[in-house]
Amino acid sequence: MRHPSARAGRTRDARGAIRSGPGTAASRVLLRLLLVLVAACGLAVLVPGTAGAEGEQVIGTLQTSRSGPIEGIEVTVTTADGDDVDTAETDDEGRFAVDLPGPGQYTVTIDADSLPEGVVLSGEDSRTVTVDAGRRQPVQFGLNDGSTGSGGGNVRAIQLFVDGLRFGLLIAISAVGLSLIFGTTGLTNFAHGELVTIGALFAWWVNVGLGVPIIPAAIIAMIGGAAFGALNELGLWRPLRRRGTGLVAALVVSIGLSLLLRYLVQILYGGDSNPYTGLGASRAVDYGLFRLTNQSLVSIIISVVVLVLVAVMLQRTKIGKAMRAVADNRDLAASSGINVNRVILVVWMMGGSLAALGGVLLGLSDQVRWDMGFQLLLLMFAGVTLGGLGTAYGALVGSVIVGVFVQMSTLVIPNDVKYVGGLLLLIVILVIRPQGILGSRARIG
Amino acid sequence: MGDLINALAVAGKSALGFQAVFFALLAIGLNVHFGYTGLLNFGQIAFALLGGFGIAISVSQWGLDFWVGVLVGLGAAVVLALLLGLPTLRLRADYLAIATIATAEGLRLLFRSVSASEVTGGTRGLSAFNGDFVSLAPWDTGQRYSILGTRWSGGELWVALVGWVLVALLCLLVWLLVRSPWGRVLKAIREDEDAVRALGKNVYLYKMQSLVLGGVIGALGGMVYVVGTGAANPDQFQNANTFLAYAVLILGGAARVLGPVVGAVILLFVIQFADTGLRALISNGIIPEGLLSATDVAQIRFVLVGLGLMLLLVFRPQGIFGDRREVMLDAR
């Protein structure tokens, strides 16, 4: 995933100095979702490797439903440091197996250029895997043979719309906290993505490590997320506000925090992606115009319910009104007797817990990764800016639009650049209506 | 002991090699943006990407001359700065921040995508474009030279030398510029934009000029980097590098001409020393493998940089040489 290729003439130190690894695979996130949802999509199916040697191996199969097994594709394996391990070609059944010198992290790259006519990679041409001692590690490459839009009575646009809705709601859940934190404290929190990652990871640990079913695990993760949000506020941001740290300084501090947490997570958790367990069957159910797995359906329902609850809370409860008051005018709120610090603490806890839920939902569809939150962060920003920075409902509307836009844009642009479309949308919004759909002119300075 | 000396040598090489030049140039550009004008450009690495790929694509794909490639890269950086500045420079600082970070990530994704691979080489990137440049070296670039216990290839040495000359020239340029009336307007914008506007200056135009200038300097950094490594790969241009450059800038001292240079040398030395030192400690068994494995060490640098950024901004926002009053730390 890091430097799959083009390493000619580079020294080890040179690579070391620049190799950073966040989010190289933003498009992968949704691609996998598509692979699950769209049955006609070709899949790289896992079949045990051919060679039966002792020791560690990476194995896999390249085939799609239309082209069948794909023969003669070069597969290169390199170590995490970029040293070549070995190269193999897929056999007549599309299978490959590469012996490894030992356990550790490896990058597997396939030669995308030599794929047969009509078959394209739907994701990255490389995967980074961690191989445990004695393990034959399967590696999966998403292949698309162009049969996606036809067959099965699916209407592609509607299918993408539904996928986009699910994704947009997920962004919205994660972004409500981002927007409210901005509204109440003025902080543009670049470390918000890490709240998402850590929530998803915590749920994964409870789910896989402790064997708790996914729904209680998600609830525990939300509680953990709230605690983590409170820790952020009490341990860092409140003392900084007390010191009178400026907003730009705080923004750069949040970037430092984001880097710190992101790479700490990578060290502790590793560079690979893992699914939750005990999810049951993930077959897509046909609803006529579109297909949806039960997981995605539940994800949509949970998102809608939670967002409605948040809206009711903001609209009806005392603390919700106080949040909106602080976001609207902090000094006025303080002088009318609202305990601003307490409100901000609640906002952080709520934001942390919602981000954790967003992380779990993202982990359900795309597996848990160390940089999943950072990839989502940019789309959250797009959504929040589109809706209007600092408004709770704006974040909601904007995020859903961004999610749908990103998914639907694959009708015209290739899959692996669809996030670029989302980010382009962000810039277009800034030109046309910088205050966003629901924002007010006064905020943009 | 031998390991320690080795770690020092490796760190010293990294602090004087083209990697340090790369970060110094990124940070000089950011210094113009952030240090002098108060612009929050979080996508500096996008300018470097355009600079690097400007050369790589021109030479290896279009068969143009190396120096034409340099011009292409600089031109692309100017265009990007204009595109970014046009919508965002009228808005509050954090809008530029969000737009630039999004652009940097978007450009990288675009460059590494399958559909762009005919031009950019996709995830494989491009190589074999620096021959014209390396052959200008007055010494044999095929040989390896040993300087103070560090091993350099002739090419590395040449790129580093030219890079540091470039850094010196740009520092001189920045020094002259910020002493000029133009530079004083920039600093005034940083301090109080509305006051400058009231004096009849076109703030938007000045900000735009600053964005273009800093972006072009960033593009030069990208060029030094790809020429140094001999390969251009979109994944070399991860956005975490922008924040490394911020750490460099703030460590050395923002709004100081030599701040970025000092910051780059020190930061790369510390990072590389920590890197090599930790690897040595792990391979000697002093740090048990269960606690930290050799593959984790590469990530440690970003943990350190993140922590360092936070601590610096909280406790010493002016860095080593900066002036606390001059470090712009409030949004407008």
UniProtKB/TrEMBL annotation, chain A:
Pfam families reported in the protein's UniProt record: BPD_transp_2, CarboxypepD_reg
Q: Name one GO biological process term.
A: D-alanine transmembrane transport
Q: Which GO molecular-function terms appear in the entry?
A: L-isoleucine transmembrane transporter activity; L-leucine transmembrane transporter activity; L-phenylalanine transmembrane transporter activity; L-valine transmembrane transporter activity
Q: Where in the cell is it found?
A: Cell membrane
Q: Which SUPFAM superfamilies match?
A: Cna protein B-type domain (SSF49478)
User: What stretches pass through the bilayer?
Assistant: 164-182, 202-232, 244-265, 296-314, 343-364, 376-405, 417-436
- Membrane topology classification: Multi-pass membrane protein
Q: Which InterPro entries does the annotation name?
A: ABC_transp_permease, BCAA_transport_permease, Ig-like_fold
Main subcellular localization, coarse class? Answer: membrane
Keyword Cell membrane annotated = yes
Q: Which UniProt keywords apply?
A: Amino-acid transport, Cell inner membrane, Cell membrane, Membrane, Transmembrane, Transmembrane helix, Transport
One Gene Ontology cellular component term attached to this UniProt record is: plasma membrane
What does the sequence similarity comment in the record state about its family? Belongs to the binding-protein-dependent transport system permease family. LivHM subfamily.
Name of the molecule in the record: Branched-chain amino acid transport system permease protein
Lineage, highest ranks first: Bacteria, Bacillati, Actinomycetota, Actinomycetes, Geodermatophilales
TrEMBL record, chain B:
InterPro entries referenced in this protein's UniProt entry, alphabetically: ABC_transp_permease (IPR001851), LivM-like (IPR043428)
* Name of one Pfam family that matches: BPD_transp_2
Q: Which UniProt keywords apply?
A: Cell membrane, Membrane, Transmembrane, Transmembrane helix
Q: Where found?
A: Cell membrane
Q: How is this protein named in the record?
A: Branched-chain amino acid transport system permease protein
Upper classification of the source organism reads: Bacteria, Bacillati, Actinomycetota, Actinomycetes, Geodermatophilales
Q: Does the keyword Ribonucleoprotein apply?
A: no
Q: Which domain of life is it from?
A: Bacteria
